[in-house]
Amino acid sequence: MLLDPNIRNPIAISLGAIAGALSRYYLTLWFAKTFGTAFPYGTFFINLSGCFGMGCFVTVALERVVTIPPEVRLMITTGFLGAYTTFSTYGLETVILLRDRNVPAVSLYWAGSAILGILSVQLGVILARFGK
To answer: 65, 31, 75: which is closest to 49 by C-alpha?
Structure first.
């Protein structure tokens, strides 16, 4: 049963996600306590460190001679880094589009995610307040 990837992969992702979410939570608390809350230092650090981690890990996993089992790759990328910060996936996908020289797609994805993301948050706030 545990040899079946349909069982192993979700378990690996779940274990990574627990560690990623807890890391994000405790780092955010530490940054707020240490530097205050006037600027979102924790989120800023988490986004940048998550992108750095994604870049390093994916490069090692794909370009080095080291063989990393698929469930370990999923545990670290989709699980840990996905729960730690989805910004790392955004960064990786932007780099892939850049590498493919797909300028229209990278422009839409890069700017659209940031701009439409902010607008979507504001729309959610407006709609949530509408029913008050």
So the answer is: 31
Which among 102, 85, 106, 83 is positioned nearest to 18, based on CA atoms? 83
Separation of alpha carbons 113 and 94, rounded Å: 10
Q: Are 43 and 28 in contact (CB under 8 A)?
A: yes
The whole-model pTM stands at 0.77
What is the secondary structure of the chain as a DSSP string? -TT-HHHHHHHHHHHHHHHHHHHHHHHHHHHHHHH-SSS-HHHHHHHHHHHHHHHHHHHHHHHSS----HHHHHIIIIIIIHHH-THHHHHHHHHHHHHTT-HHHHHHHHHHHHHHHHHHHHHHHHHHHHT-
Q: What is the pLDDT of residues 2-28, one digit of tens each?
A: 778 888 999 999 999 999 999 999 999
Q: Distance between CA 18 and CA 48 in Å, rounded?
A: 20
Burial 23-40 (b: 16+ CB within 10 A, else e): bbeebbeebeeeeeeeee
